[in-house]
Amino acid sequence: MKRWFRVIIISVFAVAAVSLVLIQFYQTRRTFSINDNMFNVGVSNAMESVIKQLTEETSQTAILPATAFSYHDLDSLIGEELLLNGIDIHPVIGLYDGGQRSFLYCSDAQMEERLEESPYRYSFQPVGVSPAGQLFITLYFPSAELFLQRHSNIYVYMSLVLIFVVAAMFILTLRAFAHQRKLDTMKTEFINNMTHEIKTPISTISLACEMLSDESVAQDSMSRGNFIEIINDENQRMRVLVETMLQSAKMSNKNFKLTPKELDVNEIISRVAASFRLTLANRGGFIETHLEADPSTLFADELHLTNMLYNLVDNGIKYSSGAPHIVVSTQRDGNRFLLKVQDYGVGIAKEDLKHIFDKFYRVSTGNVHDVKGFGIGLNYVASVARLHHAHIKVESEPGEGSTFTITFTSR
């Protein structure tokens, strides 16, 4: 995916996310305003009904003194009418004498100042009620804001959920772009490294064949034997390389199964070690084997166990800056079979240790970047260990080498 296209997609998502936040903020405020208006209408309708009922009652009973007025009935009537209009909070109620500028009644004396400032004031002058000054029924709702918020919360929650979903999708998209870019880079590096890996043995075999076609070399049995051995080693190397790629691809299939049988692991190690002796000798190195496991049999897949060993030894040789020194050992610990491959090479930094079994991952510190490989060998090793229900552990220090320990549980 081209960079300009990624920039456009990210920009569109960013604009959409910001727009949604602004729209939801506006809609939330608008909803709160609508609920506030509906609340005011509900209170007005309730009080209109209350005043109408009180006026009719006082007209019929001809109550004269204000003290004969039932304030308890006033509280009950207002509460009932508010509920009928969808308002389930009870206000502080006061009966205010406009002429005397004082309250004839207040359901909560501590709230008189709030009642005087309240906008919920309704004129009330029942027939025959004294004093003659204008009376007002005044309401104050201490929890009106909470009431409005409660009725608006559903919209707020929906807005938050939508914003969260958009933000999550935006982050996931960015991660997908980053992952895709990483995969593209890894794919390119894999193709380049694989081409180089296969090209090298082909060139070596081609050169060896060219030398063998020379009559002077063909007549020298020792030289001819050396070149034939080189061809055989390079052919073996290329075979394992191709086999590793093919088997790694097969292992990605969930239906992949091993073909286990009883094997002599010490014998397999001896064969693998022998195949590397010429390569190690050419670099001035050597390989040791300490095959102490007794019995040395293990129920495993021969092809994959052999390839796993080949990859571990080859990895140790490639990541040795000087003359390679490889040690392969086996041990028995009860029903556990321990297989160790140790090298004294450049080692692995701590930040790379947790990634070395990732597919296509290659250590990129020091001079390791110049090492041939395509980042699939150790991933294959880990896959083989997993399929054998074995545990693989790596111990490494930069400059001191690495030790791979694979623990199998015997059946």
Verbal overview:
- The protein is an alpha+beta fold and 411 residues long.
- The chain folds into 2 domains: 3-142, no CATH class; 256-409, Heat Shock Protein 90, CATH 3.30.565.10.
- The chain contains 10 helices and 11 strands.
- Strands 6-8-9-11-10 form a 5-stranded mixed sheet, covered by helices on one side. Strands 2-1-4-3 form a 4-stranded antiparallel sheet.
- Strand 8 (325-333) and strand 9 (336-343) form a beta hairpin.
Give a concise summary:
The protein has 411 residues and is α+β, with helices and mostly antiparallel strands. It is built from ten helices and eleven strands.
Write a concise keyword list for the protein shown above.
single chain; 411 residues; alpha+beta; Heat Shock Protein 90; 2 domains; five-stranded mixed sheet; four-stranded antiparallel sheet; 10 helices; rod-shaped
